[in-house]
Amino acid sequence: MSLELVNRAAGHADRTALLAPEGLFSYSTLLDVSAAIATRLLSGRDDLDGARVCYLVPPGWSYAAVQWGIWRAGGLGVPMATSHPEAELAYVLDDADPEVVVAHPSLVDRVAGIAKQRGLTVLQTPALLAQTPLAVLPDVDEAAGALMLYTSGTTGRPKGVVLSHANIRAQVESLSGAWGWRGSDHILLHLPLHHVHGIVNVLTCALWNGATCEILPRFNAVDVWERLARGDATLYMAVPTVYRRLIDAWDDADPETRAAWTAGSKSCRLMVSGSAALPVPTLRRWEGITGQRLLERYGMTEIGMGLSNPLEGERRPGFVGTPLPGVEIRLVDDDERPVEAGHPGQIQVRGPGVFSQYWRRSAETADAFTDDGWFRTGDLAVVEEGAYRILGRSSVDILKTGGEKISALEIEDVLRSHPGVADCAVVGVPDPEWGDRVCAAVVPAGDAELVEDELRDLARTRLAPYKVPKDFLIVDDLPRNAMGKVTKPDVRELFTPDDA
């Protein structure tokens, strides 16, 4: 059977699919060029039959065309992070065991040497995208692998998460209905394209629905504001760190610029935040600037999106809503027995969007699922008044101190309510008396002078005594990954024995 994503694109032939740094491209052009890429990748064969193709391509037209070409040839696409150092790229090549590597000319030097050491051919995008007599392309089964995305969770070496075409279709159909996607939508994209957030939630959802995806080469706060100010974008999705930086840029702008930026942002029918917990102060400040109440959702590489606040209706600060269409979610205790509403539990997910396997890691795949097919996310949540509130990852966000389990995210929300706190991260540092010693790394807002006793008093007025951080460290910034998410194991390293 042919891929439904491709079939739908044929129905949008004359519409603009992509507005990218390279230019403007229609759906018919995407179909033609991806077919040429597939033909070159096949090299006379009938089907790549799941062979891995790694690609190191910056966000833009070439990226989308290469991804579709791999899929249409029957290959398993492995997007590589343009931000990763050579050692991380080498790890992906060794683990994925691809038959070929595709690279953009601007990035080919990053991967050519390590590919040659492994006997791998490197194909550059200009040659792949050139016109060629087209071969008959294979019928690709939707049960076949489509994407392999690398994720390490919080510990261990990165694992390849294999998503089938059926997984991606289920995720896209669920989001299309829940978030009201339509062909007239125009979305901005500057997220990294080696994560589900950018690939599925933005790019593939747009192309599935015949919408226009405008790809920015990189994130720059002023550029994004100026783009929003034009008033023709209907959707915008980003991570909490990006919204914080956009707020900072707005604060630094003159009154006339602020007014233009605010007016333009009101044209969006929906703005979404995800990939990390959204601080409530950030949500409220963004709404004050733009009039937009951010829609927060919950997901991860292995499941796509699982929970979402509603498109229409109340979006409660600090909550991620209810299960998306087609997604089953339950909360269980340490013995995997369902917990009642109001009680914390580990999130387990089941549904057609859930991944099939960790690449060549059968034991870890088996450990990730219950006997009846529920995926163990490793995250904790609680249901309050019908909506889910994420408490954090059990490995880094749930601290055990003095015999009590506490959520680091809850403490962080309180600390961020202080006007002098731009950001913070609460971690547990091993302590012989407490188990986890609650520590907070705090980033000052602007030139604010933060006083530890003042922060401690704030926490004491809002939290139980055992939740109050015992140590504070004032820092200029926090360690983050490529998505801008704070890496708490790295934050923990900031606390030396003298500090803790």
Short account of what is shown:
With 500 residues, the protein is of the alpha/beta class. Among the domains are: 4-141, Rossmann fold (3-Layer(aba) Sandwich), CATH 3.40.50; 398-492, GMP Synthetase, Chain A, domain 3 (2-Layer Sandwich), CATH 3.30.300.30. The strands form 6 sheets. It has a 9-stranded mixed β-sheet with strand order 2-1-10-9-11-12-13-14-15. It has a 4-stranded parallel β-sheet with strand order 4-3-5-6, sandwiched between helices. The chain has a 4-stranded antiparallel β-sheet with strand order 16-17-19-20.
Structure overview:
- With 500 residues, this protein is α/β, with parallel strands linked by helices.
- Among the domains are: 4-141, Rossmann fold (3-Layer(aba) Sandwich), CATH 3.40.50.980; 398-492, GMP Synthetase, Chain A, domain 3, CATH 3.30.300.
- The chain has 16 helices and 25 strands.
- The strands form six sheets. The protein has a nine-stranded mixed β-sheet. A four-stranded parallel β-sheet has the order 4-3-5-6, sandwiched between helices.
- α2 crosses α3, α4 crosses α5 and α9 (221-229) crosses α10.
- The radius of gyration is 23 Å and the shape is globular.
- It starts with a helix and ends in an 8-residue tail after the last helix.
- The mean pLDDT is 93.
Cα radius of gyration in angstroms: 23 Å
If helices are DSSP runs of H or I spanning 4 or more residues, what is the number of helices? Answer: 16
Q: End-to-end distance, in Å?
A: 60 Å
Helix and strand content put the structural class at: alpha/beta
Number of strands: 25
The CATH topology of the domain at 4-141 corresponds to Rossmann fold
Largest sheet: 9 strands, mixed
Shape annotation: globular
How helical, in percent, are the residues? Answer: 25-40%
Percent strand equals 25-35%
Low-confidence stretches: none
CATH hierarchy class name of the domain at 4-141: Alpha Beta
Global mean pLDDT: 93
CATH architecture of the domain at 4-141: 3-Layer(aba) Sandwich
Strand order of the largest sheet: 2-1-10-9-11-12-13-14-15
